[in-house]
Amino acid sequence: MKPNILLVTADQWRGDCLSAVGHQTVQTPNIDALAAEGTLFRRHYAGTAPCSPARATLYTGLNQANHRVCQNGSPLDARFDNIALAARRAGYDPTLFGYTDVSPDPRACDPNDPVLTSYEGVLAGFTVGQILLEHERHWLAWLRSKGRKDAWSRDIHATGELGASPAYSKDETQTAFLTDAFLEWREMQERPWFAHISFLRPHPPFCVPEPYNHMFAPGDGPAYARAERREDEAQIHPFVKFAMEIQKKSSFVHGAEGSVSEWTAEDFDSIRATYYGMIAEVDAQFGRIVSALRGNGEWENTIIIFTSDHAEMMGDHWSFGKGGYHDGSYHIPLVIRDPSATVAGRQIEAFTSAADIMPTLCQRLGVMPGNHQDGRSLLPFLAGMEPRVWRDAAFYEFDFRDVVQATRETHFNLRSDQCNLAVLRDEMFKYVHFSALPPLLFDLGKDPMELRNVAEDAAYLPIRLRYAEKLLSLRARHLDQTLAYCQLTEDGPVSRPVL
Fold it and tell me: Which of 117, 330, 384, 418 is deepest in the core (most CB within 10 A)?
């Protein structure tokens, strides 16, 4: 029997924020239970940030160097295959609950088409079950239908102070809204289904209703990965200093004014406690989905993938949000449960990538990707095996160009195509290569918080060279191979499969 497919993304969820991986504060019983029956990937990394670029990697199986979605609003080239189109070839009608943040290829649209005025387009191939965009109007209308007559704008998130409860209940969150929509839709399905639930939370604004806003105390949690003083952090690299200077409170707390640099260490603690509460709220709503699937007998025929698009700094390096080169922005959760193929309770230490989701789904559904894939199928891990050859490091990229205002280009005196970095990170070292700024090298064994850049240390120059060569080789291997394995002969096209 063809399985149901449920792909769940929870926006901006850190990979260390699962009680299943030993977090000392966060409690995620429902995700933990999924991991106990499935496979948990402990070193899973986003391909890039922010939302649109990260999701482009997740949906297409391509690194940013190939899909070229650089910022929110960068179009996704229409020639690329994706998980929704692949699902259609497998006989599904893939249905979206939430958003995909995909900017369409403008070459395929009329210049007057309003779809070109927003980066929040829907990935090609998806049917929309329930949309939820940044303006949140669909959710606000739902709130009004439930009696919240003042729910006309995102001011409903305003709490007046850090940690206070917003003007909606735990049953009226954006997460509950999408969960209700999915559960109602599922009741109407008469054939195997493919659903993508794209939860907004724990993405900012950082606020959550009772009981979650007081579930965790400020100060609870692991030590922050950061220098003791902001000034010391800013001296690590010019990019770090710039990134810290431009952060605004309003990006993280609705209605707040001023710079993040004005928040105290105690404010950081309060916001982190709220973030933990937001994670608990999403976990609880995910639990409703699991209960429904168990209750109607679909649990044993449903493949579930739980992950995020990118992570959240959450106070590490005196920052919030995502971007740059730190693990806090890119280390994300991944749990997969396939009832017919999973060795239950396995935890994988190998480095995996968001680019691996597309080839994994394609192999599981028995369809071929329509183009080159940078990711690789995770099915061997699910089956309890080890792939014959696998990557020994995490790789991710960040493009910080600003093609509209050119603020970054002006600040660093660079061209747009020079505003990017690439990271190669294994168990021992992290190497950060900037196209036109000084490189970074961190000895993770001696400096796990990444506070001492040893790129210019003479003793580390051979290591820096080795990692630069590894990065160059990786980039060369991941050039688009769509037609590179095909050759026309007098007997017709000959293709050699990728090993």
Answer: 330
In this structure, the dihedral spanned by the alpha carbons of residues 165, 167, 170 and 176, taken in order and rounded to 10 degrees, is -130
Verify that 300 and 408 share a domain, yes or no.
no
Q: What angle do CA 342, 344, 347 make, to 5 degrees?
A: 95
| Closest listed residue to residue 41, CA positions, set 56, 13, 12, 21 | 21
For position 186, which CATH number holds?
Answer: 3.40.720.10
pLDDT in tens, 33-82: 999 999 999 999 999 999 999 999 999 999 999 999 999 999 999 999 99
314 DSSP 8-state letter:
T
At residue 499, the pLDDT reads: 47
> How far are the Cα atoms of 67, 361, 477, 488 from residue 372, in angstroms, in the given order?
11, 15, 11, 18
> Mind listing the pLDDT tens digit for each residue in 406-425?
999 999 999 999 999 999 99
Provide the residue type at 449 as one letter.
M
What is the set of active-site residues? Answer: 51
Q: Dihedral angle at the C-alpha atoms of 441, 445, 450, 451, nearest 10 degrees?
A: -100
Q: What is the dihedral of CA 8, 12, 15, 19, to 10 degrees?
A: -80
CA–CA dist 399, 49 (Å, integer): 8
Who's near 230: CB < 8 A, 6+ residues apart? Answer: 244, 261, 318
Contact 355, 62 (CB under 8 A): yes
Beta-bridge partner residues of 187: none
Our measurement of the distance from residue 284's CA atom to the centroid of its chain's CA atoms, rounded to an integer in Å, reads 20
- Both 249 and 228 in a single domain? yes
DSSP percent split of the chain into helix, strand, coil, nearest 5: 35, 15, 50
- CA–chain centroid gap for 237, Å, is 25
Q: Considering the entire predicted model, what is its pTM?
A: 0.97
Whether 332 contacts 15, CB under 8 Å: yes
The Cα–Cα gap between 124 and 113 comes to: 16
How many CB atoms neighbour CB 16 within 10 A?
20
Over residues 456-473, the pLDDT tens digits come to: 999 999 999 999 999 999
| Cβ–Cβ under 8 Å, residues 317 and 211 | no
Question: What distance in Å separates the CA atoms of residue 116 and residue 344, rounded to the nearest whole number?
Answer: 45
Same-domain check for residues 424 and 389? no
Residue 449: exposure state from Cβ atoms within 10 A (0-12, 13-18, ≥19) = middle
Within this chain, do residues 101 and 211 fall inside the same structural domain, yes or no? yes
Asked if 221 and 337 sit in the same domain, the reply is yes
3-state secondary structure 179-194: HHHHHHHHCCCCCCCE
Distance CA 261, CA 272 (A): 16
The helix or strand, by DSSP H or E, that contains position 26, with its residue range, turns out to be none
Residue 441 sits in a domain whose CATH number is 3.30.1120
